Amino acid sequence: MSIQAMSADGNLVTYTDRRRWLWSLSLFWPTMPVISCWLAASSGQVAWFWATLIVWYGLVPIVDHLLPTDASNPPPEVVPQLEADRYYRVLTYLTVPIHYFTLVYTAYIVGTQHLPWHAILGLALSVGVVNGLAINTGHELGHKKTRLERWLAKIVLAVVGYGHFLIEHNRGHHVDVATPSDPASAKMGQSIYSFASWEIRGAVRRAWATEKARLARSGRGPWTLDNEVLQPTLITVVLYGGLLAAFGWVMLPFLFLQAFWGWFGILTSANYVEHYGLLRQKLENGRYEPCQPHHSWNSNHIMSNLILFNLQRHSDHHANATRRYQSLRSFDNLPELPSGYPLMFAIALLPPLWFALMDSRVVAWAGGDFSRLNVLPEKRDCLIQRYAPRSEN
User: Fold this and answer.
1) Per-residue pLDDT, 390
2) What Å distances lie between residue 45 and 199, 249, 378, 388, CA to CA?
3) DSSP string spanning 228-275?
């Protein structure tokens, strides 16, 4: 399907999205734990419950590196038509019930089958991976201006118990991104574990404080159904309470593990990777410069971008937050990740390996100028000494 538009100089511009139908992979991916349950049942091999993790952390990175990266962009003339195409937004809408189906179905399997602990662990972490990506769907929907999309964002965020993300991300992270005060922007020299203890608590606090302040401006307290943090939280309580009532106490470890891995294994990992070490400069008036594409790490790896609704083109997203995923752009001279998110998330779990891979890239991108970097204060002197240019004698 081609889109045509006239350029400013009167020439006809034609564009075909070569990935149009491949975006439907975003519908397939949330069903992976369900498919693994079917394969385990048909084969009698509970190892299948770990399949989603193997695909995410193993197969997807392999495909990412086998395929060439794609830095192509839609012509600006066709972007209004591309963004108006309902096909792309319907894909995001359809993922919402799929995430719920996957959680309920896998909860049914755990609650009604006599599974060994390692099978439950594998399935819970697998559901955590795909429901962590429900936060990604909520991220895409939550930046849009329609009432429907914002409510769908709240509904899908509830599946993993991360309903405060909508407020925290849009009105917190996007304001403070790539600054030392942002709990969702990792500092150079900071491990993911140190970052997580700061980011997870900071996100909850900032979301609640932001929404409390909004309601106070209209003379209301925070304990109201108009509170956009409480709305998805109540959905989570009803959902998880229903699963607990239906399938018993075994749901407690299952629901906790899948939510934990969705929070830490996916969202915290994404926040850690996306802005690691990058810094907006403070202006003379005391404010930070506007967020630019170079304040986010970018990746044009195809397979992971198809699964993630182009989230890895994070540079354009932060510069143009309402732009829809199908029209996000890549730019020249951006900080580029060496791989897609799945492999980068895995590497981040091993801090020495992460630092060895990324710290030199951060310094190289800044041209060795540490004033352009967001560095963990207690490691600043050590890192400057390590990466300072060596004078020739």
Assistant:
1) 59
2) 38, 25, 49, 53
3) TTHHHHHHHHHHHHHHHHHH-TTHHHHHHHHHHIIIIIIIIHHHHHHT
| Nearest Cα residue to 206 out of 183, 174, 236, 187 | 183
Residue 23: predicted pLDDT: 95
- Whole-model pTM over 0.90: yes
Query: Distance between CA atoms of 80 and 154, rounded to whole angstroms?
Result: 26
What is the helix (H) or strand (E) element at residue 37, kind and residue range?
A: helix 32-43
Residues 37 and 28: beta-carbon distance below 8 Å: no
Distance CA 318, CA 161 (A): 24
Nearest-angstrom CA–CA distance, 175 and 146: 21
- d(Cα 189, Cα 357) in Å, to the nearest integer? 12
* d(C-alpha 98, C-alpha 110), whole Å: 18
Which tens digit of pLDDT belongs to each residue from 153-165?
999 999 999 999 9
Please give, one letter per residue, the 3-state secondary structure of 311-362: CCCHHHHHHCCCCCHHHCCCCCCCCECCCCHHHHHHHHCCHHHHHHHHHHHH
In angstroms, rounded to a whole number, what is the distance separating the alpha carbons of residues 95 and 76?
28
pLDDT of residue 207: 96
188: DSSP letter:
B
DSSP 3-state of 56: helix
- Residue 149 CB neighbours (<10 A): 17
- DSSP of 107-128: HHHHHHS---HHHHHHHHHHHH
Residue 193 dihedral angles phi and psi, to the nearest 5°: -75, -40
Low-confidence ranges of the chain (pLDDT < 50): 391-393
Cβ neighbours, 10 Å, residue 281:
12
Q: What angle do CA 127, 316, 171 make, to 5 degrees?
A: 70
CB contact at 8 A, 299 and 270 = no
Q: How many angstroms separate the CA atoms of 319 and 293, rounded? A: 6
pLDDT of residue 5: 74
* Residue tagged 């143009």 (tokens): 320
What is the per-residue pLDDT for 393? 44
The amino acid present at 160, given as its one-letter code, is: V
Q: According to the model, what pLDDT value does residue 9 have?
A: 78
